[in-house]
Write a structure and sequence with these properties.
binds manganese (II) ion; binds ligand BES; binds zinc ion
Length: 501
């Protein structure tokens, strides 16, 4: 997709399609008014007649308007004007842009001009506006990578998106387009990986994907540990989870290095359970298929590494992925089994379904060798975070409040929201075991916090945050599929670091 800026008058833009907005009280935006005058008020008459009611997200396509140089005019409903007060809220703007793009893909339009009002610059500065346009485009045009045998419908024709902007804003917008395109590419990779079924997207598949990335990007180095190497690392908890599976585990080390990057790396750690049956503590059947998404953290790390490499950010970033299945089998771990993690701590596995923390504790310990500045893990770790926050906020846990606040702020600024959860000593005390250094579960209360407290036992001395993405990384129901979250939040965090130094 190509993104362009046009600085001249809208009415004279000869383009396949131009999108303009209207409010549900019948008021046209200034851009729409210009076109309306050119075509002898055909647009306002349409609204007066009530055929197009301009509800938020509603669209109406007009073709070959006399006096208008664009082939098509796409009317976009912006909803109530009072809620937007002249400038759009970010939410209304995102919705309008997405509606315009998806309506354009239902035509044979090759170039779409976006002549919509924008949110105030303090809510969405030019660079972030450019990024959001490219990001929303990638997100809206994404088609789920299904394995249906029927012939795929004809691809849309959209190849160019043109945004109105001043010459002064152009450099920032262009920078934003590049950021947004990189983010969209990473997020699409995440979604593709997460959407694939467990019998296709195995630990080895994740490893091959990472190795392919290293072929495409000079800045990336990938190392893959197989079973012998994982044993050599004495990752007893990771090994305990994988031992019931026929599918070989993989541990991925993806390094992005930049010659101008100063300082210690950011290490990203992803939970890569390619299918979570629960193991001997077997899950209930109804939505068990959704446990193919239990590698969303890993997918997000891999996607983010792609985005970082695409922009060649002046940072050192390391992506670690622990990938295996959690299966019931004659060789599976059993409740009560005690294993030793690579950090040397013993763990009594009271519930084999609390496997994410087991693979992560060994991955987090591995992160220490990079002497990281910051470690961030991403995991569909607990059902309890969905009970606590629903599907709207990612749960942020950290041993460093400033880091948690920074991540929450990053999420808020890019509409990929997160919420700071508590993580005090008491929760860790609940993991007491009579037989080992700790148990892997602590009962139902505060389940997402005790899970984080388990990880906290392995991150002493590190500046660390844990993102529980069980509610945000994918959707169930009719729109079942990966959301790409929290790629945007994480990318914002890395971009800020890249510009801060
Ligand atoms: N992968 C699940 C968490 C999960 C649940 C993600 C629902 C998405 C939706 C994780 O491995 C798990 O099973 N956690 C248990 C922990 C419990 C046994 C302490 C859970 O949340 O029930
Ligand atoms: Mn589980
Ligand atoms: Zn799991």
């Amino acid at each position: 997709m190509q993104f362009e800026i046009w600085t001249k008058g809208l009415a004279d833009l000869a383009i396949d399609c131009v999108a303009v907005g209207a409010y549900d009280d019948g008021e046209l935006t200034p851009e729409a008014k210009v076109l309306d005058l050119r075509c002898r008020e055909k647009i306002s008459r349409l609204l007066k007649r009530g055929d197009f009611t301009a509800k938020a997200g509603e669209t109406w396509l007009l073709a070959d308007l006399e006096g208008v140089r664009a082939d098509r005019v796409l009317l976009i409903g912006l909803g109530a004007r009072s809620q937007n007060a002249g400038e759009l809220t970010r939410k209304a703007w995102r919705r309008a842009v997405s509606a315009a793009l998806s309506a354009a893909t239902r035509t044979r339009c090759g170039a779409l001009g976006l002549a919509l009002p924008r949110p105030a610059a303090k809510l969405l500065p030019d660079e972030r506006l450019g990024r959001a346009v490219a990001e929303i485009t990638g997100h809206t045009l994404y088609r789920v990578n299904d394995l249906k045998s029927a012939k795929k419908p004809r691809a849309h024709a959209l190849a160019r998106v043109v945004v109105a902007g001043t010459a002064k804003a152009a450099p920032a917008l262009k920078k934003g387009f590049a950021q947004g395109s990189a983010l969209a590419g990473g997020s699409a990779l995440m979604r593709n990986l997460a959407n694939l079924p467990g019998n296709v997207c195995t630990p080895s598949y994740l490893a091959r994907t990472a190795q392919d990335l290293a072929k495409s990007y000079k800045s990336l180095r990938v190392k893959v540990l197989g079973l012998p190497e994982i044993k050599r690392e004495k990752m007893g908890c990771f090994l305990a989870v994988t031992q019931g599976s026929e599918e070989p585990p993989r541990f991925l080390v993806i390094e992005h290095k930049h010659p101008r990057a100063k300082g210690a790396p950011v290490v990203l750690v992803g939970k890569g359970i390619t299918f979570d049956t629960g193991g001997i503590s077997l899950k209930d059947p109804p939505t068990m298929d959704e446990m193919k998404f239990d590698m969303s953290g890993a997918a997000c790390v891999i996607g983010t590494m792609k985005a970082v490499a695409e922009l060649n950010l002046p940072l050192n970033v390391v992506g670690l992925v622990a990938a295996c299945e959690n299966m019931p089998d004659g060789r599976s771990i059993k409740p009560g089994d005690i294993v030793t993690s690579s950090a040397g701590l013993t763990v009594e596995i009271l519930n084999t379904d609390a496997e994410g923390r087991l693979i992560l504790c060994d991955a987090l310990h591995y992160a220490r060798r990079f002497k990281p500045d910051v470690v961030i893990d991403l995991a569909t770790l607990t059902g309890a975070i969905v009970v606590a926050l629903g599907v709207h906020h990612t749960g942020v846990f950290s041993n460093t409040d400033a880091l948690a606040r920074e991540l929450v702020d990053c999420g808020a600024s890019v509409d990929d929201r997160a919420w700071h959860m508590p993580l005090t000593e008491e929760y860790g005390e609940q993991l007491k075991s009579n037989f080992a250094d700790m148990a892997n579960v602590a009962g139902r209360d505060g389940g997402s916090i005790t899970a984080a407290a388990f990880l906290a036992k392995y991150t002493g001395g590190l500046t660390w945050a844990h993102l529980d993405i069980a509610g945000t990384a994918y959707q169930g129901g009719a729109g079942k599929g990966s959301t790409g979250r929290p790629s945007a939040m994480l990318f914002e965090y890395l971009l800020r670091r890249a510009t801060a130094r």
